[in-house]
Amino acid sequence: MDKEKELQEELVWNAGYRMNENLRMIKICFDQLSEEQVWQKPNNSCNSIANLILHLCGNITQYGIASIQNLEDERKRDEEFATESGYTKAELIKKLEDTVDEAKRAFYDAPLHELLRKRYVQGFNFSGVGNIIHVTEHLSYHTGQIALYTKMLNDQDLGFYSGVNLNVKNE
Q1: Quick count: other Cβ atoms within 10 Å of Cβ 60?
Q2: How many CB atoms sit inside 10 A of residue 110's CB?
Q3: Mean pLDDT over all residues of the chain?
Q4: Domain definitions of the chain by residue range
Q5: What's the CATH fold of domain 3-154?
Q6: What is the pLDDT of residue 4?
Q7: What gap in Å lies between CA 76 and CA 11, rounded to an integer?
Q8: pTM for the full predicted model
Q9: CA dihedral 94, 100, 104, 109 (to 10 degrees)
């Protein structure tokens, strides 16, 4: 295998791994929240967890699916934040799982030239690689917000790494 293909596969695998990890953490949060809590806003300046999930689905679709697969951008970003109901916890998680799975497929299926090609998304000029990095870090950013809000609501550890010794030193 040539080095370019090897690097491409390593990038895509690691992005997928990180996306799966964030999805795992969001599911742990959802298991600790009620249907009402996912739609609750901490204050008027913040979004609900449900709005963050809808926002993540829109962003991942725009950057990670439509852009990389050269599909029409049909995102309605304002609706992601204006929605106040209409989805259960299970429906929100399923929507996010399906979106993440579709994005990972788009990453894996993209030929190298698509990962290198520059394109404009939301007015920003990124390559496909740039879009993959954006999707991964954006998902992580909002996963942190969801985790913090869940901790604030329930005043308990989330147990993301229960049973894992995080003090093991690098080899």
Answers
A1: 25
A2: 22
A3: 95
A4: 3-154
A5: Four Helix Bundle (Hemerythrin (Met), subunit A) (1.20.120)
A6: 85
A7: 29
A8: 0.94
A9: 70
Burial bucket for residue 85 (CB in 10 Å: 0-12, 13-18, 19+): exposed
Task: Assess whether pLDDT exceeds 70 at residue 75.
Answer: yes
Tokens at residue 90, please?
Answer: 């299970």
Give the Å distances, CA to CA, from 88 to 44, 99, 110, 124, 139.
22, 16, 33, 33, 20
Mean pLDDT of 54-83: 95
Contact 108, 12 (CB under 8 A): yes
| Token digits of residue 44 | 């008027």
Q: What is the pLDDT of residue 116?
A: 94
Neighbour tally for 40: CB within 10 Å? 14
SS3 call for 106: helix
Taking only Cα atoms into account, the Rg of the chain, rounded to an integer number of angstroms, comes to 17
Q: Please identify which residue in the block is written with the tokens 């985790």.
A: 147
Q: Please provide residue 30's backbone torsions phi and psi, each rounded to the nearest 5 degrees.
A: -60, -35
Q: What is the pLDDT of residues 79-106, one digit of tens each?
A: 999 999 999 999 999 999 999 999 999 9
Confidence of residue 5 (pLDDT cuts 50, 70, 90): confident
Check residue 124 and report its DSSP letter.
E
Amino acid at 84: E
pLDDT, position 1: 65
Name the token pair of 60.
């991942």
